[in-house]
Structures are given as C-alpha cells and as structure tokens.
Fold this sequence. Notes:
This protein is mainly alpha-helical.
Amino acid sequence: MGDEKKEVSEVKETKEVKAEGKKSFLSENALEVITVILLGITALLTAWASYVGSIHGGNQATNYATSNNLSSDGNSLYNAAVQTLSQDMGIWNTISSYEVEILYAESAKDNAAIEANIWKLQWFCGDNLPDNMAAAIGYDIEKFSDGNNDTEEILAWLKNEKAITSPFTQEFVETYFDEANAKLEEADKVIEQGKQDNANGDKFSLVTVLYSVALFMLGIVGVFKNTTNKKIVLAVSFVCLLIAVIFMATIPLPASGGIFG
C-alpha cells in the first residue's frame, strides 16, 4: 500500500509540474503586462491619428478658401482681359482705317493726304497702341516717330503683309487671358489638394475608429476569467491594432500644418 501511495503521489507531482509548465506561456501576469502595453501604444496611436486627421481637416478648409480667392481673382482678370481685348480691337479698327487712307492716297499720288494720314497714324499709335499689338503688326513706335524719314519708313512698313493683317489670331487672343488662366489653373490645383486633404482626413478618421475598436477589446480583456478567452480577445485586439497601423502607414501626411511646417 505504501508503494502504491508513493506512486500516486509521484504521478500527481508530475502532472502538477506539467501543468505549471503549460501555464508558463502567457501566464496571467504576462497577459496583464501585454494588455497594458498595447493599451498605451493604442492610446498614443489614436491620439496621433486624431491629430494628423485634424491637420488634414484644417488644410482642407484653408485650401478651399484659398481656391475661392484665386478663382475670384482669376474671374476678375478674365473680365478685365475681355474689356482690354475689346478696346484693342477698336484700336486696330482705327489703325486699319488710317492704313487704308494712306494706301489709297499713295495710289492716287496725293502726297498731302499721305502726310495727313501718316501724321494721324503716328499720333494715334503713340498714344494708344499697346506693346503686344505693336509687336504683332511690326509697328516700331519710336522709329516711326523720330522725325527721320518717318513717311518713307511707314510706307515701307505698309508693304509688309503683317502690317495690314489683323493681329487677332486665336493664338494672339489667348495671350490676353494667360494671367487669368494661370490663376484659375492655380485655383484648380489648390481645390484638388483640398479634396485630397478631405479624403486623407476621412481615412485618418477611419483609422481612429479601428484604434477605438482595439482599445475596446483591450479594455475588456480583464473581464474574462478564462485565460483562453482572454488570449482570444487579446489576439483580436492585436489584429485590429495591426490593421490600423498598416492602413495608417499608407495615408500621406499633411503637406503643411502643425509639426509638418
């Protein structure tokens, strides 16, 4: 009987040792430590995601306001360009009428009419001809008004087809709207950046939700008495945390604002 009791005691001791060996992996203390560490990390990451998301939101509002201002400036420049174009077309109509008078007087050998209309052309161009149109029709204001063979120089200029052809080609007209178009293109770029900030801000909000799920799961780990259940909940929370971190790493950081300059 003594030997049998001794044998049973040894078997119990062996089972207890094995049980302790099994408990050594992720024991209660280890689970608590891991849970606390993950809670801290998740809380910090949640705060970081909220902070970056708020910067994206601020940049979005700033970009939308900037885009509106640029669009307003661009529209104002466009309207001014339309007015300038209309005025310059009127200037060209007057110049072309003088050109016709000069050419007609030249064909009629009417020197007095030639001199009179050349004087009118010189005076009008000196006061009204813009530089861009002067370059387009090849009219040299200084050269043609220096008092040195002005009549001969202007008559020679009129023999050039560029002088008597309307400069208002499509390419020339488009130059009037270059500044306005540049402003409007800049406004489009800024609004697109604002849309991107809005999308990135929404993504960081989603990341915050994922972190919140992980925080909730970590918070209820201690509620479960069964170690296996604790491990399952801890594993699920870790997966949520990992997914959130990977997703956050794919989202661009703000171009400006906060610590980003």
